[in-house]
Amino acid sequence: MPSYRGSCHCGAVAFEIKTDFSEFTKCDCSLCRKKNAVMAKVHEDQFELLEGEDRLGLYQWNTRTAKHYFCKSCGIYTFHRKRIDPAFFGVNVYCLDDADLTGVPIVEVDGKSMFVVGPDGR
Ligand SMILES: [Zn+2]
């Protein structure tokens, strides 16, 4: 499987994923909408953080299962560990530096109807 390098805007955070780009996902939950995120799903075995572990900020909400990472210097969302299966990462495809993203189908995920905890869940 081909590998692709990704990074945040300032370059502090860098990572590499292996993927065949079969599909991307877009989710309509309250967080993904605001991030305007388009994501590639990869297993943790296909993900390697190369640089910037100490620069990663962590945002958690709702059930606090998913771990949403971002660069503390430039604020860019880079990747997150998924709530449905934390062994998988959702990766911000626009952080991939030299990947041709044209023609990859984008599947819309119904994140809005996922179970939400508490009044501040959504
Ligand atoms: Zn950065």
Secondary-structure map:
Elements: E1 3-7, E2 14-18, E3 24-27, H1 30-35, E4 38-43, E5 47-51, E6 56-59, E7 67-71, E8 77-81, E9 88-92, E10 106-109
Bound molecules: zinc ion (ZN).
Zinc ion binds at residues 8-10, 12-13, 71, 73-74, 76.
Question: What report would you give on this structure?
Answer:
The chain has 122 residues and is mainly beta. The chain has one helix and ten strands. The chain has one helix at 30-35, and strands at 3-7, 14-18, 24-27, 38-43, 47-51, 56-59, 67-71, 77-81, 88-92, 106-109. The chain has a seven-stranded mixed beta sheet with strand order 6-7-8-9-4-3-10. A hairpin with a 6-residue loop joins strand 1 (3-7) and strand 2. The mean pLDDT is 91. Zinc ion is lined by residues 8-10, 12-13, 71, 73-74, 76.
